[in-house]
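Continuing the batch. This is chain 6 of the set; chains 1 through 5 are on the previous pages. Same settings as before, nothing changed between runs. Recording input and output for traceability.
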Amino acid sequence: MHSRHRYHGRDVYGTRSRRYNETHRLGSIGLQQYSFMRLYRIVGHPFSIDKKFTIYENGNEQYLVRGGRLFGGINGMILEDRFGNALINIQKESGLHWHPIYQLLSNDGRELANIRKSSSALSFEINTVYGPYSTTVMSQSLKYFSIRNAHFQNIASWKQNGVEVAANQDQPFLLALIVVIHHLIPPPPTSHYVGR
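Output for chain 6:
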């Protein structure tokens, strides 16, 4: 059974009932692994001026990601619910940084997370209102990866069968985070085989 998540007065089905400024408590969950994951399919629209991604669950459109640049870049994208309500803003932090820093912002401008590449091309520093997150990249070429919370629980992943998000987690937040990480994973280095 899914509860409702209020984004400043707007209800989105499928996530826990809480506000971003409330304290996140796992309570008795502890190190328990999540047994129920929600499965999404993210479809890109690389040549669309406005609509960049459509996110489906069970064949039904649940979220849209709009904005950003026509080719590449995710700066300025907005994740909306299926009714067109803006939920999460993706912004590239201004200033000079060795690695770009992306922020997830609520629709009133509060920072929910910041994401940056660390020294390794396949690891990221992810600080969120829910605590630090970490990632494991399973396939660099296919951009398959998983996300763990501060309790080392797998809470989301992008795999061959689609995008999975633990049912008791903040769905829009994790979907926006997944879009950013997927964008930041670099293509694998090309290898040249020289035959005899």
